[in-house]
Amino acid sequence: MSVRFVIDSLDYVRNARVHHGRISPAEFTRLQSYLFDSYGELEYTVSGLLDEYSRPTICILIKGEINLCCQRCLGKLAHTLDLQTNLLLVKNEAELEQNDEDDTVDSILVSSEMDVPGLVEDEIILSFSISLCHQEGKCSTELSANHQVVDKKLREHPFAALAELKKTH
């Protein structure tokens, strides 16, 4: 990842800092396996603040659109991101484990070198559903531009798609 922005999380919250940025999906290494292409640009804001109980919190906002790969047809799946996450900063593993039991709170350990683009990438990946697919009946009947498979052909002979692929290679 070429974009590197590191913060001291507690200092960031104490000084109520805010960072805005734009980043291409191509910049995220772990996100690549989910992407159909590197189309799009994501806007993010990372703010340091105190929550309603005066606890240190990092607020992450992410907006944009990316193209994911449908797990059913392997085609392009447009996906709009509009995320807001508040991460409570905790000082040790015991506090982290205690907060893990509470489903309403997301916690991370305090760090003097917190990688902001890494946090943004984490939140994007965590927002995905278990199975990234088009809605039922919306998948493409084409495997790719080179390997067109007509649904009718598949019904006539189950190995028609394999025969088409064999011809092109």
Structure, described:
With 169 residues, this protein is an alpha+beta fold. The protein folds into 2 domains: 6-135, no CATH class; 139-169, no CATH class. It contains 5 helices and 7 strands, in the order βαββββαββααα. It has helices at residues 9-14, 93-100, 116-127, 151-156, 160-168, and strands at 6-7, 18-23, 42-50, 56-69, 76-90, 106-109, 114-115. A hairpin with a 6-residue loop joins β4 and β5 (76-90). The longest helix is centred in the C-terminal third of the chain and has 12 residues, at 116-127.
Topology:
Elements lengths: L5 E2 L1 H6 L3 E6 L18 E9 L5 E14 L6 E15 L2 H8 L5 E4 L4 E2 H12 L23 H6 L3 H9 L1
Parallel strand pairs: 5-6
Antiparallel strand pairs: 1-7, 2-3, 3-4, 4-5
